[in-house]
Write a structure and sequence with these properties.
Blueprint (H helix, E strand, L loop, with lengths): L6 E3 L14 E3 L9 H12 L16 H26 L12 H34 L3 H4 L5 H21 L17 E6 L9 E3 L5 E3 L5 E5 H10 L2 E3 L7
Antiparallel strand pairs: 1-2, 3-6, 3-7, 4-5
Helix pairs in contact: 1-2, 1-3, 2-3, 3-5
GO biological process, one term: DNA strand elongation involved in mitotic DNA replication
Keywords: DNA replication, Nucleus
Protein name: GINS subunit domain-containing protein
Amino acid sequence: MGKGPNVLEPSASSQSPPSSQIRIFRPISGVMNYGQHGRDLLMELKRSEGNGLTEGVSLPAYNDKSVQSALQELTLHVQALNDQVESTRELSPDGKPPISVRPSILLQSAAIQRNKRCLLAYHQTRLDRIQQLYYWQSQEAAEENMCPPEIEFLRDYEKLVQSFQASTGVSWDLRSQTVPPQPSDRVQVRVVNADKFDGGPIVLESGVSVVLTVGSTHYLLYSDVEEYLRSGDLELLPGEENI
């Protein structure tokens, strides 16, 4: 991979050059891979699917080296973007960067957003898997692959579950469930296995009639789909709809 784009800087030999004069570029130190480190983190999680500690739930070791590399690259892009905008602003009468440098500015901005998305997705996916491992009662075996903040998250999550259990008077261990506790409201689910539904409409406990086909998503009462979630015929989709 090449080094990051240069940033415009006046030549030391120039004296108040006109706005149309070409300026000499100053290189930003560091190598920018335009989201490659973030992509590598996500591919690492993808490769670990289905090969882990429990049925489809795996947590690879926290890749601090790649995370730090992605953060460093993100910082370089932000620095390059800010420097380029500031150094070219005076070249335009209206204070906006000239047309000739806008593609480079857009590229820097896109690289920043891509790195942010990759880093957020990496950490959110790991937190989701830690919760799943908790309900599979396998989080102890995976703790060696967690970073200190993730272990702290697990401890706090366990306290929340215990507090929820105590406040609702639930007598059984919630960890015996294959999915996290859900509110008595609607949740979004996807059909994974439709063999038992015969392709026709079925009437749920609440009286709602619905056709469940493989791959279809539905927004239903949790009490209506709890049995199918446990059997694996449906899967719970994460998101704000399930809060």
